[in-house]
Amino acid sequence: MPAESLARYTWASYLRAVLAVARKDWLHFLRYPLNAVFRIVEPIMWLTPIYFLGRSFATAQGNIGFKEYVGVGDYMSFILLGGVLSSFIGAVFWGMGQSLKQEMDSGVLESNWMAPVPRPLLLIGQTVASITITSVTTAGTLFLAWLVFGFHVSGNVLYALSAALPMIVALYGFGFAFAAVVLLMRDANTLIDVSNYLVSIFSGSNFPVQVLPRPLLVISLALPLTYGMDAVRGFLMHTRTLIPLGYELLILLAFMALMVPLGYAVFRRVETRCRRLGTIGMH
Amino acid sequence: MGQSTLTAPSDTLARPRVSAGSTLRVLLAVARKEWIIFTRYPTWVIAIIVWPVIFPLGYIFTAKALGGPNGASLHAFERLAGTSDYISYIVMGTVMWMWLNMTLWDIGFHLREEQMRGTLESNWLCPVPRLLMMMGASLAKLSTSFIFLILTVIEFRLVFGVSLVRGNVPLLLAVVLLTMPSIYGIGVMFASLVIRFREANAMVFLVRGLVSVFCGITYPLAVLPVWMHGVAQFIPITYAIRDTRAAALSNASFAQVAPDLAKLGAFAVVLPVLGCLAFAYTERRARRTGSLAQY
User: Fold this and answer.
1) Could you give the count of Cα atoms lying within 13 Å of A117 in the half-sphere of its Cβ?
2) What residues in A contact B68, CB-CB < 8 Å?
3) How close does chain B come to A52, measured CA to CA in Å?
4) pLDDT, average across residues A55-70
5) Could you tell me if residue A202 is inside a domain?
6) What is the ipTM of this complex?
7) Minimal Cβ distance to B61: which of A41, A191, A207
8) Cα separation of B12 and A278, whole Å?
9) CB A212 to CB B206 under 8 A?
10) Which domain does B220 fall in, by range?
11) How many of the other CB atoms lie within 10 Å of CB of B14?
């Protein structure tokens, strides 16, 4: 009698698997309510020293030095928008990057991977949870920031989303590859921590990248995220952008088209390697 | 068979004999164990080398942007901070912050990690004072803090051309030494809180967040509203940052910062005592509720 899989794959079953994984991650998130609250409050704590640093540079005419760089003096809205986008960078590096490793450490990765669903679906479920959790916490952060610092945007939100969405999708594509690489490492905390911080800094989350020295500016301009942050600020705050906005959107779309299949390919390769070597249960 | 045959005579029960020698042995054994675990994951070397240089970068470049391409806003900062050297000014604050942050993660997570690994309960069954085990772990972490501080001084000289050890060096050392007990007192208190609330990340974010918001790691305290000044006065790091800047950047004398030194001295006594009390309370509570193995 020929072997026959009992699992019947349909689009509906895929969707159920994705939603089940996303629901599980949401439950984990809500089970530690203090951590959940701090996801909202913590960015404010990072931004406060920058707010007061800005106050200490303010002249009677406002932040004229900053205005010379970007065309607007409202440094706090500039940094807040950077903070919002870097929270997605953090979610990809820490949430996605650590997702498989954490399951491995808890000893549930092997059993989860035995479930009769394609393994990438498990990561897609985690991506859905990560994007929705980060969006909710970021909205909370923006509301708090509006209360504490004041937050003004005068541009077109839909245009800004047209730049932010491809950037976020590309980031999560990269997250697939990063999660797979972290799975191969025994202790990846330092790698994640340093990479997350450097990518956020060099993509200009806290300052206009024009202030960087030339060698660092080259790194910054090589990161597609730099154009994502620049474009979102350009659409929402009418800042002077690095290159015309149309070109920045093209770079972001190309980044998305590259990163999603690349991330998937790296993940499949690492998955095959782990199954062949039987290293899923080791850490 | 009589019941008496099942009961051990009281004189055969082993009772630990606590002496100065045994105390020291316990302390060193725990410190050695922690050091071995620590060195088994060598990525800490990368962290300890990379972080001192990259962490202040964000603030330094933000300050550069705020100053403007021609330094149009720099005079405003100089008027409030007493120096236009914003790089050294920011670096002095971030070093103190990183030191505290490192202690919070290392000591604060020490008990939590044992709890997660499932070894806390069995270790606490050893016939040695629990506080001693905590102090042994702190001793191991203290050595990494020294490595961190020495590397930081060397790296800032090489990468930014900033000499951290300058101005009134004896005063600078005195401030660092007076700050040390406070930081480790906060660390032990923090470890107890983590065991109590079991949400370690959130607790780190809270404590280091309070320091970054109130203590002036990047900005002069003069820009703070009055109520925030009031809060900052109750945090030892505020004085540590202010005095290291005064000693290194303004060459201040002992007499000029004497009131701050007295406050740092008071914190150096009070915070370790509070740390021990918090630990003793947590220990009692955990034994009563049987919550050591829960996470």
Assistant:
1) 22
2) 64-69
3) 6
4) 90
5) yes
6) 0.84
7) A207
8) 51
9) no
10) 23-59+93-286
11) 6
